[in-house]
């Protein structure tokens, strides 16, 4: 935050104790949450929330952070079904819905990202194409803790059922709560979600567990994009599960892309 930022942060609670100060801060917060900007990705216009530096950074790096993911989506047949697991604020859900006409199911349980996911959907008038599922996925249906690394809007590095990070270290959460999670297969069989043609998984740690809960569904998908954790055994487990589903690794550049060939 810097020296000035820390000083302001210390002063805010004192300002908030006064009626006028509280009203000013509430007005600023409301204005901040509502703030948005327009950007273009491959000549397509998107209106996106930019309420804090993290959200603003996500908007500014939309085209550069994961160009292989955008190219992967560009190859979808129009109207395909995409599951975006770990959607965060929904950039790739929006891109798939707006550029390819996809029917998207965006899984995002973090309360600090969920509001901005839904705001972005609304700002781009994509309510009919994107369905939000505010629950995590894992290898079994259960109630467990969702541990959040940060309370920052649009933050990442969260974990469900354990506190293991993508590099295998144990996270010290800044916020956690219990929530019901399910599996890919039971989301299809019990929640009656359509089987996806494509799945994107980026949850910063439990990708192997999520894949393990989708053995039946994975046999039917056309492609999977997965950010593989770096802890020992994760890559081998992901390869085993996707290989058993009849998928073949076609790209390993940051995210892995697997296709049915």
Outline the secondary-structure elements.
Layout: H1 2-16, H2 19-34, E1 36-41, E2 44-49, H3 53-60, H4 67-74, E3 81-85, H5 91-100, E4 103-107, H6 111-123, E5 130-133, E6 142-148, E7 159-160, E8 175-181, H7 184-189, E9 198-201, H8 207-212, H9 215-218, E10 223-226, H10 234-244, E11 248-253, E12 255-259
Helix and strand element order: HHEEHHEHEHEEEEHEHHEHEE
| Span of the ends, CA to CA | 49 Å
Low-confidence stretches: none
Give the class from helix and strand content and strand pairing.
alpha/beta
Rg calc: 19 Å
Bulk shape? globular
CATH architecture: 3-Layer(aba) Sandwich
Binned strand content: 15-25%
Q: What is the helix fraction of residues, given as a range?
A: 25-40%
Mean pLDDT: 92
CATH overall fold name: Rossmann fold
**Largest sheet, strands/sense/barrel:** 7 strands, mixed
CATH superfamily, please? Vaccinia Virus protein VP39
Summarize the structure.
With 261 residues, this protein is α/β, with parallel strands linked by helices. 37% of the residues lie in helices and 23% in strands. The chain is built from ten helices and twelve strands.
């Amino acid at each position: 935050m810097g020296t000035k930022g820390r000083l302001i942060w210390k002063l805010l609670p004192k300002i908030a104790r006064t009626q006028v100060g509280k009203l000013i801060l509430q007005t600023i917060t409301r204005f901040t949450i509502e703030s948005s900007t327009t950007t273009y990705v491959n000549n397509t216009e998107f209106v996106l929330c930019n309420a804090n530096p993290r959200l603003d950074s996500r908007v500014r790096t939309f085209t550069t952070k994961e160009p292989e993911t955008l190219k992967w989506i560009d190859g979808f047949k129009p109207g395909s079904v995409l599951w975006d697991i770990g959607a965060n604020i929904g950039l790739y859900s929006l891109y798939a819905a707006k550029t390819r006409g996809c029917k998207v199911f965006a899984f995002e349980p973090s309360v600090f990202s969920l509001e901005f996911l839904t705001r972005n959907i609304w700002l781009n008038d994509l309510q009919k194409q994107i369905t939000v599922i505010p629950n995590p996925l894992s290898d079994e249906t259960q109630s467990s803790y969702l541990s959040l690394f940060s309370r920052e809007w649009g933050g990442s590095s969260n974990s469900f059922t354990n506190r293991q990070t993508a590099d295998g270290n144990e996270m010290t959460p800044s916020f956690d709560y219990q929530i019901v999670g399910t599996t890919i297969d039971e989301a299809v069989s019990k929640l009656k979600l359509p089987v996806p043609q494509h799945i994107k998984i980026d949850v910063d740690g439990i990708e192997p567990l999520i894949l393990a809960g989708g053995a039946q569904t994975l046999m039917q998908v056309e492609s999977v994009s997965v950010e593989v954790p770096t802890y020992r055994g994760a890559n081998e487990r992901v390869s085993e599960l996707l290989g058993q589903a009849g998928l073949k690794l076609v790209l390993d550049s940051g995210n892995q892309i697997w296709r049915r060939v």
